[in-house]
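A sample copied in:

***
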Amino acid sequence: MKSFLLCLAIAVVGVSCAPSEQPQRPRPWWNPSILFNHLTPKSTSRIVGGFKVTIEDVPYQISLRNWGGSHMCGGSIISSRWILTAGHCAYRSSNSMYTIRAGSTNRQEGGEVLKLKRIIQHPLYDPNIIDYDFSLLELKEEMSFDSTRAPIELPEQDEEVGDGALCRVSGWGDTMSSVESTTMLRATDVPAVNQDRCSTAYVDFGGVTPRMICAGYWEGGKDACQGDSGGPLASGGKLIGVVSWGYGCAEEGFPGVYSRVAAVREWIRKETGV
């Protein structure tokens, strides 16, 4: 009965059950693992395992807000008019539902709230394996830049990320700690993981595709989590990944899985001119 309920909840958000008992977990606030947390393995630590940052540290970070004005996902500024987020966070037909908050360390107040003109979900987005997990958000009005709002550089098409490269992931997601607030922005630094090794770790989920990149420590302890979906994974001043999915949060043997920006660079350029 528990397995049935978990499969049903995952199906509601467009993610099918993996062949094993280990469900894939996209990371917006409405992820079913929150609703069914009694079925979810406990993390060995607590972003998770991160530290406080200000928006000036990651001025490309935004909060994607639902129709009620609540934070649901992260995103990254790539130009004065465009935001890059996860495909499972924003759908083509629902642009009127969402706004973004930019330029604020606090996800609930400050900065600037901007409306969306349209959403372009990647045409090959596959919710069953969370592949091509990208959406572009076009703003109704151009955003002005300052120390709290600035675009992040994008990699070139198929640009490589070396194994072990240090990456920073940031967001307002679950810290898995009652004493660490999700209201204020947090970040953690994690190394890029070898693609083949990560695919082996996730073999029960069908592995990872070339549109994915993994980052984290094999012993766990530092990771993105629910509420961080769509947010940035940055390395060397470039946006190399978008928070996408993973098994639990900061679990030993399961690094975080991110959508690989370099794999869709030409698509981004074609749609946005950026």
